[in-house]
Amino acid sequence: MMRYPEFFDAAPVIRMHDPLAEFLGAVQNGIMEYHYVDVVALAGHSCPTVASAFLMLRAGLNALYPGEVPERGGVGVEFQGQAEEGVVGVMANVASFITGATQTAGFKGLGGRFDRRGLLDFGAEIGMEMRLTRKDIGRSAEVSARLESVPIDPRVHQLLPLCLSASDNQQALEEFQTLWQDRVRRLLLEHANDPEVIRAGTN
């Protein structure tokens, strides 16, 4: 059984309707639920970048589909940065996982339907970190995260080099892990709906 911090289960959940999953009988009614622990398993780690990508997608999808369940495979995702820049690639993996959007390696479709390719792009001329666009109506939402509003405990910077060294200091490692995940916890539980941290705008 996979063990992880309890707050993962208290984080918001993203619900999507996947018409391909429904068509193939993979999931009843095509309703998929994405929990924070799912993207942690995808990324292999839990950090503010992974958490903020999850929350930005949630905010963007909510803005595009108010009162509705967003359609997986029906949303294009663009990033301001290039895939190899900073943490853009990590965020793109989370976006692809949740929305189904890919560049060229995604599902090719069946009978002209359910094609997931050509929905992910980089280097977009946008004002925020990420833009989501509905294929059906062309409506877009731009989103970004102000992680500086959820500051890191300064002790993390002191502990990190110690934990990365060859020294076997279990106490330092446990303190580092607690402080690191506490910032993620605050982001997910205290600022998920905070417009000063997770910003979204439609056009």
Q: What string, H for helix and E for strand, traces the elements in order? A: EHEHHEHEEEHHE
How much helical structure, as a percent, in the residues?
Answer: 25-40%
Segments where pLDDT lies below 50 for 5+ residues?
none
Would you tell me which CATH topology applies?
60s Ribosomal Protein L30, Chain: A
Q: How much beta, percentage-wise?
A: 15-25%
What's the average pLDDT?
Answer: 95
Q: Please tell me what the overall shape is.
A: globular
Overall CATH architecture? 2-Layer Sandwich
Instruction: Walk across the major sheet and give the strand order.
Output: 4-3-5-6-7
What structural class do the secondary elements suggest? alpha+beta
* Rg calc: 18 Å
Contiguous helical run count: 6
The number of distinct β-strands equals 7
- How many separate structural domains? 1
CATH first level? Alpha Beta
End-to-end separation in angstroms reads: 44 Å
Q: For the report, how would you describe the main beta sheet?
A: 5 strands, mixed
What descriptors fit this protein?
five-stranded mixed β-sheet, alpha+beta, 36% helix, 60s Ribosomal Protein L30, Chain: A, 203 residues, globular, two-stranded antiparallel sheet, single chain
